[in-house]
Amino acid sequence: MNPLCPLANVRIVLSHTSHPGNIGAAARAMKTMGLGALYLINPKSFPDKEAEARAAGAWDVLNAAKVCGSLEEALSGTVLVAAVTARPRDLSHEVFDSRQGAQELCNHARQHPVALVFGTEMSGLTTLEVSKCQIIVHIPANPDYSSLNLASAVQVMAYELRMALAGSGSLPQPMSTPASFDEIELFVRHLEQSMINSGFLDPQEPKRLLQRMRRLFARARLEKEEVNILRGILSALEKRR
Length: 241
Prior knowledge:
- By secondary structure, the protein is an alpha/beta fold.
- The protein has ten helices and seven strands.
- The chain has helices spanning 20-32, 49-55, 59-63, 71-75, 98-109, 127-131, 150-166, 181-198, 209-220, 224-240, and strands at residues 10-15, 37-41, 66-68, 80-84, 94-97, 114-118, 135-138.
- Strand 1, helix 1 (20-32) and strand 2 form a beta-alpha-beta unit.
- Helix 1 (20-32) runs parallel beside helix 7.
- The model has no long low-confidence stretch (mean pLDDT 91).
């Protein structure tokens, strides 16, 4: 794959996958559409012969898969993360269908790493996992039977990404440098500690405050300079206190 192609900047992240066959099938789905960056968060069984069999020739993608111990590790360095989920959520982020989401991701992938996160086969993504993503992507399906196999969901999104790339000539270029996942996480931790120190947040009863704040920042699509300003404000207030 051409390293300058935006698809080289797209990570497919599978969280806590139960069945190794789905990992292999996902690798195959990725390769057919020109994606190669597969990240696995605490898979139940990997490496595994069933994964190799289901990869059906996409062994380069499978062998290059990065096994991570946390979502934070898998998303390090990305600037836009999409949670792929069909379940309605409270405190939901901005929601795109699969085609719109692929266009949004491809636009950013021209210059920076991005990621699509898929949850477990049985329960999908947790609320905490979704809260660490900037957007939600859903695959339109039959409302009476919307259950989609994990590898099939990866195939649909890989196809949409390839189609978005084909038509990417009309997509606008980002005008500024977006904040990375790591920078936003450090800012959220800084904000949380400042709120605790000021007495605004009771760590014993946090309720959903941080979820609401993450939702706000996800909608804002913070830029690197904006995060630096916000952290500078927090540091100045802490010094005054």
